[in-house]
Prior knowledge:
The complex is a heterodimer.
Chain A: H1 3-6, E1 14-15, H2 23-28, H3 30-44, H4 54-73, H5 82-109, H6 111-114, H7 123-149, H8 156-186, H9 189-201, H10 211-218, H11 222-225, H12 229-245, H13 249-256, H14 261-287, H15 290-293
Helix pairs in contact in A: 3-7, 4-5, 4-7, 5-7, 5-8, 5-9, 5-12, 7-8, 7-12, 8-9, 8-12, 8-14, 12-13, 12-14
Chain B: E1 11-25, H1 30-38, E2 44-58, E3 62-67, H2 73-81, E4 88-94, E5 97-100, H3 113-123, H4 128-142, H5 157-170, E6 175-179, H6 187-202, E7 206-210, H7 214-220, E8 223-228, E9 231-236, H8 238-244, H9 257-261
Parallel strand pairs in B: 3-7, 3-8, 5-6, 6-7
Antiparallel strand pairs in B: 1-2, 1-4, 8-9
Helix pairs in contact in B: 3-4, 3-5, 4-5
The complex binds adenosine-5'-triphosphate (ATP) and magnesium ion.
Adenosine-5'-triphosphate binds next to strand 1, strand 2 and helix 2 of chain B.
Amino acid sequence: MTEAGRHRLVDAPLAPPAPAAGLLDVLGRRYLLKLLVRREISARYQGSFLGFIWSYINPLSQLFIFWFVFGYIIGRGTVDKYAVHVFCGLIVVHFFTETFNAGTRSIVRNKALVRKMAMPKEMFPVASMLVSLYHVGPQLVILTVVCLFCGWVPDPLGMLAFALALAIIAVLGTALALMFSAANVFFRDFASAVTILTNFVRFGVPMIYPYTLVDQRFGRFAELYLFNPIADAVLLVQRAFWVGSTDDPDATIAEQIPDDLLVYGVGALLGSIVLLGVAQLVFTRLENKIPERLS
Amino acid sequence: MTDPAAYGADTSIVVDHVSKDFTLRYHRTAKQMAVAMVKGRDISDTFSALDDVTFTVEQGESIGLMGLNGSGKSTLLKLINGVMKPDTGTVLTRGRIAGLIATGAGFHPQLTGRENVYLNAAILGMTEAETQRKFDSIVEFADIGRFLETPVGNYSSGMFARLGFAVAIHVDSDIFLADEVLAVGDRPFKRKCMEKMQEIRDSGRTLVYVSHAAGSVRKMCDRVIVLEKGRVGFDGPVDEGIRYVKYDEDNIKPEDQEDDELGSDV
Ligand SMILES: Nc1ncnc2c1ncn2[C@@H]1O[C@H](COP(=O)(O)OP(=O)(O)OP(=O)(O)O)[C@@H](O)[C@H]1O
Ligand SMILES: [Mg+2]
């Protein structure tokens, strides 16, 4: 073989081989992201007979339990259409806790890949978020059916509120998942801590209790409660679905929904975006040591 | 920082004053750490896996990377393919990289062979259409039969390596890294691998070949780099390099020649 025969001109710059643009790299590799998301989804129901039907059974049973235990036995149902009220919160809380929990474990769970392949590691927490988002689908179907049954008609502002809520949780969840997925590589304690942490989330949002209760008890300080982005997201979803399902929507809005909810919502989204930026910085600092710590 | 413009258009790999330390942790739990601290023992220590390594590789060269166990060969390949970043110094590469590191590919144990082929190919930068087009050829090369549809966690180490190698050679790469690829394959597969790697070399792709078998290095490579405890001990012609690591000390009988070329254990 002559030297000339072997010659191959490579039309690419001489550059560091490791991906360095973080979340931006993830955006550029959508096909890989799609594969990761698809495999997570199919892995969840692998070896199960009913398969995807569980995605419907699970939220339905939760809806039933809340309606039965709180609304019926304890008589806690001080608000109209209490089950819908709870379910709106449940969708948000589930989306958040699933993203946070699965995202935190995502890098360790994929260590076989991370140890040997060069790829943006941000891929894994982002994929976890998308999988959780995907599971919002069946819950949304159930919610819509129940709401239509209650005489709900979609309104543009409500749909905007819903989209805003999803965006808040998607960004916030990704930010936290990103930070903790890296930390979890160094100490697996983080995954356990996150599990406990997420158990408390449902009590910090107006899901089991109505927002009026907070307003009455805390008065002026109710404002602080609204600095919790997850609480804002729950209220936004309730504005989108629950309000229209009640007997008197106008009264419900006046009584149960804070006046500047959309402003708080936009603020929560901006805050979450800033947190995502911080998370990326933290991740980049920890990232270098991740492959060697995974053995 | 190293300036990429300082190198010619034919430079394929630049490793410039690269060092990589690992932290050795002796204790993992809080209890163990507390005990160690009370007894005044070290909790952790750093270990220099690569120490000021410098060399450049031109496009189309095939490098034999040799050295004793633990000398840092796999670590160096991880820096070249971008899995790890150097602590100090710079690594630059030109074009797409594919290959195997430390015998196995990055496969997910719970996924089937088929799913792993797609995932692995995507990570290596292949598009969906490209993978579909090459899928049959990949499967044919790996030749693992029905096991394609079972989780790779259940594969024998030979099957695991076959599938990994099959995907890697189908990537249209400019740099190919082969870390002990022949270590676990059976004889027919080893022969097939050698042929394939020669094809890769002859097509002008840069080849970095890690092996303990002097014969196969002699056959495959036109330059040898020897690592010694993380430092470059030798960088030059093949025969001298092999003499340097003293791998051909014991005389090889002619009938063993092929075994040696196929990279059987030394
Ligand atoms: N993640 C890690 N953490 C700590 N030490 C590590 C890690 N990875 C590798 N090392 C150490 O770095 C050194 C070099 O390892 P490496 O795998 O590069 O050796 P090698 O030359 O490929 O050896 P072999 O011929 O056995 O494959 C070894 O001493 C190993 O123990
Ligand atoms: Mg090795």
